[in-house]
Design goal:
globular; 12 strands; alpha/beta; three-stranded antiparallel sheet
């Protein structure tokens, strides 16, 4: 794909082996085409490694954080189960939202939680809203432990952000989807891998080996879930599509 931005003419040229098109530069279609490449370039340069939340690294695209905030503040889950802790920024992000809402807690799971990450979370003033489990997220014993930490009647949302291989995400989806409350969601993060197979740092295998592929197959097997992006809570723009690292990752359990 060749993109040609002509600011003097106000056009965006799109060309590939099949066609050549020209779009108005300040159109929704041009914005989406440019944004797709912006995401790819930003990922290759490690843009997502430049953000922190309350001092701890948070490896997310800012728009994804805003969108998940919109969901959390709308559905107000009692518990978020999140696989993948890394440096703990997302734990504190969700804890901050829950503190503002006056309710809610997070169960974070990772195969290895560094001592400095654990200390950064357990010594934080929001530590009471966070529980950490150091274990394989897809192991049956881990799921059993998580179940034991959820009270009767509590509402549950799940975020999958650990090992992003299709096989592992598929195991996590099967393991944690039964915990999701009807009307709530389970999210397979970082399906953007499918669009990064040819960028520096990417891998050709990601074309098929990615979280979105696991989510699509899960949705086909489980009619009780629907794949759809969350609705924007406010929109006076001409835009309709998020800039995201989580394409086709939102699975909503039907009410």
């Amino acid at each position: 794909m060749t993109l040609t931005i002509d600011t003097s003419r106000g056009t965006l040229g799109l060309a590939d082996e099949r066609s050549v098109r020209e779009l108005p530069l300040y159109s929704r279609e041009a914005f989406e085409a440019i944004s797709d490449q912006w995401v790819r370039v930003g990922w290759a340069l490690g843009q997502y490694f430049t953000f922190t939340w309350m001092g701890l690294p948070i490896l997310q695209l800012p728009e994804d954080l805003v969108r998940v905030q919109e969901v959390i503040t709308t559905i107000k889950p009692d518990v978020i189960v999140e696989t993948g802790v890394f440096s703990g920024g997302s734990m504190l992000f969700h804890a901050t939202l829950f503190e503002a809402l006056g309710r809610g807690r997070i169960i974070g799971i990772d195969k290895h939680i560094p001592a400095e990450t654990r200390d950064g979370i357990t010594n934080h003033r929001l530590a009471s809203r966070i529980s950490l489990i150091e274990a394989d997220s897809a192991a049956e014993s881990t799921v059993t432990q998580v179940r034991s930490m959820i009270g009767a009647g509590e509402t549950i949302m799940v975020l999958l952000d650990s090992d992003h291989s299709k096989a592992h995400v598929a195991k996590e989806l099967e393991a944690y989807a039964p915990l999701v409350t009807p009307g709530f969601c389970i999210v397979a993060a970082d399906g953007i891998m499918r669009d990064l197979a040819d960028v520096p740092g990417g891998d050709p295998s990601w074309t098929g080996d990615n979280p979105s592929a696991a989510a699509a197959e899960f949705a086909a097997r489980h009619p009780e879930f629907e794949m759809r992006d969350p609705e924007w809570q406010f929109n006076r723009s001409k835009l309709r599509r998020s800039i995201t690292y989580w394409p086709d990752g939102w699975l909503w359990r039907k009410a």
